[in-house]
Design goal:
346 residues; alpha+beta; Creatine Amidinohydrolase; 2 domains; 6-stranded mixed sheet; 3-stranded antiparallel sheet; 9 helices; binds zinc ion
Length: 346
């Protein structure tokens, strides 16, 4: 706030607000001043606010949110209050601006994003728990794959096993894509049936204590279709190169380039249609992005996915994804499910 000459910061994004205060009620805004913080919410969440953020001053609004924000801002005679435009609708910005007069609302993009990008040890521990639960559930469910099972049945079983182990939810809608459906990077689980010779792409993760994990594996039912063999080996080699490049000081774009280069040398780079990875934490996709156009360098404490993939319409796709923590001198892969081709036959 000091660097951006702000007298206060209004945080309306629920996840940012949780990060700052520990309160994750559906209704709320946090107003952060240099020496105190307000949590503005409604009566339904008064008790929750007192329990989860006892140090923040609760403002229980009875009228519209903007009115309560305006009143608090004016009471402190704040000059400039920062607001992240990425998380506030245009109409809400206009309403807030009016309600805060004569204080001014200033656009202050990405302050929280930059704070959340490096994880502290307790955050890493939560991501590790989320990874362990996702992996344990996968190990159980993969043994139950049967011919005739649908993608949806498999996804449901995986979700149930994660919940039984203590996840509050999946970290995003689980992707189970059989055969040709796997060529859509964001396919959802549908009614396709698993057959002998199916390649099944599974992209899943768990949410534990608000933090998320994100993995992808491709399993082959009974046998490996010949076309998938080369695709798989290429993606696995690209992923190894990507993980190898993860270390402090490495440019985001350079990590992407390392993996992409492997696919280029093997003539498959045109089928790699997305960035190499993304940060994860309280959100499933957060900063940084490991992609060609992404600017910045890795720092210790960042947690990113490394997930190259190749997709051939009508044939299918292969993606392999693990979660990686940047350490002081390299990286630590937080997920360790087998991924050697021969071990993927179920
Ligand atoms: Zn994923
Ligand atoms: Zn991912």
């Amino acid at each position: 706030m000091e660097r951006k000459h702000l007298d206060g910061c209004l945080v309306t994004n629920r996840v940012d607000q949780y990060y700052l205060t520990g309160f994750d009620g559906e209704d709320g805004a946090a107003l952060v001043l240099p020496h105190r913080a307000y949590l503005i919410t409604d009566g339904r969440f008064a008790e929750e606010a007192a329990i989860h953020a006892p140090w923040a001053r609760a403002v229980i609004r009875t009228g519209p949110l903007a009115e309560a924000v305006g009143k608090t801002v004016r009471r402190h005679r704040l000059g400039r209050v920062g607001l992240d435009p990425a998380h506030t609708s245009v109409s809400m910005q206009a309403t807030l601006r009016k309600a805060c007069r004569p204080s001014r609302l200033a656009s202050a993009p990405r302050i929280l994003e930059q704070m959340r990008i490096v994880k502290d040890p307790s955050e890493v521990a939560a991501i590790v728990r989320a990874a362990e639960i996702a992996q344990a559930a996968f190990r159980t469910v993969v043994r139950r794959i049967r011919i005739g099972m649908t993608e949806r049945e498999l996804a449901t079983a995986l979700l149930l096993e994660m919940l039984r182990r203590g996840a509050s939810d999946a970290s995003f809608p689980i992707i189970v894509a059989e055969g040709p459906a796997s060529s859509l990077p964001h396919a959802r689980a549908g009614d396709r049936k698993i057959r002998a010779g199916s390649a099944v792409l599974i992209d899943w993760g768990a949410t534990v204590d608000h933090y998320r994990s994100d993995l992808t594996r491709v399993v082959f039912v009974r046998r490996i279709p010949p076309r998938f063999r080369r695709m798989y080996q290429n993606v696995l080699a690209a992923q190894a190169a990507g993980i190898e490049a993860v270390r402090p000081g490495a440019a985001f774009s350079q990590v992407d380039a390392q993996a992409r280069g492997v696919l280029r040398r093997r003539g498959m780079h045109k089928a790699f249609s997305h960035g190499l990875g993304h940060g994860l934490g309280l959100d499933i996709h957060e900063a940084p992005r490991l992609a060609r156009s992404s600017e910045g360098v890795l720092e210790p404490g960042m947690v990113v996915t490394v997930e190259p993939g190749v997709y051939f319409p009508g044939v299918g796709g292969v993606r392999i994804e693990d979660d990686v923590l940047v350490t002081d001198n390299g990286c630590r892969v937080l997920t360790d499910l087998p991924k050697e081709l021969d071990r993927m036959v179920v």
